[in-house]
Amino acid sequence: METRAFIPLMIPDIQQQDIDAVNEVLRSGMLIQGKKVEALEEQIAAYLGVKHAIAVSNGTATLHLALVVLGIGPGDEVIVPALSYIATANVVELVGATPVFVDIETQTFNINAELIEQKITPKTKAIIPVHEFGQACNLETILSLSQKYKLAVIEDAACALGAKSGDSFAGTQGVLGSFSFHPRKAITSGEGGLLVTNNDEIAKKLRVLRNHGIEYQNGKMDFVSAGFNYRMTDIQAALVLSQFQRFDQILSYKQKLAAIYFEELQETDFILPTVPKNHFHTWQSFHILVPENNDRDKLIDKLKQRGIGVNLGAQCIPNETFYQKKYQLNCAELVPNALKANQKGLVLPLYERLNDSDLKHICAILKEVVYE
Ligand SMILES: Cc1ncc(COP(=O)(O)O)c(C=O)c1O
Known about the structure:
three-stranded antiparallel beta sheet
């Protein structure tokens, strides 16, 4: 029998030139936010076609800052999808506002925009659509609701740098777009995040807020607000900037890998992802649903025993302990699609260090153990 090393869910593809780029910063002695952060911001803003990019310490700090800069706080409500990484709702709690959960579409796992209007109240201040698993949301309905009710749209594109709906990049249509460079993303700074906006005033405030509330007046420091230390270091920026030079290559390789999964799993009972027409999916996660009568958690264990690192996809946030205790929502009734995606979802390995043969091997094991 063929023996293979364990295939983890993700290994970032850090190459020699990325290590060299980090070493250059280390040797320079200029480690904190500096020229590399500036270059990262310039290059990503140009790629996305937005006026401003502001790099920060991670993709939770980005969302937190977004809410702070918009003045969202106690007494306010923010609409979020019921299915996402927990951070999307945690930041709403952290500013003292209330997350209002909306169910997702079964096919894309993104927020169901048709269900949003019924959740809008006089307290609603913002909507945070999430571009889940690297698939861009269709924002048309959400943007028109935001105009009708004067709500801010903060796009959580943590997993979706480069994803598109039509001609629009994920993260570029709301007042703010938020990205993460966590190691499970296509390019990584270890920890890192970035906000984008076309609003000059918001961008200026964000730069102040991420850096202890410091504004520079004629070269002198003025502490104009109670800010955070949410800066990205130049070490992190150099690492991710170096990978960004081959970003298009990375995304197109991931398309090829995803096509192998579709080919190999099409005749099975797994429910495969749907990519709407005119959408570009970046495959941050290749997220499938296990067959109806299948125990997903047992399947995860069986796959791990057979050398395949897999995991569940995302949280059904109102069903997690903190949110259940606080809001006691009946998720099966209120957000059934999010609950199902959380209980039946499975993410398969998909990254540059894998090849055709690895993916075929993963699929063969998957088919073998699913009904064992
Ligand atoms: C949708 C979503 N939002 C926010 C975050 C938080 O990003 P970070 O881990 O960089 O704090 C993640 C992380 O994976 C995420 O998937």
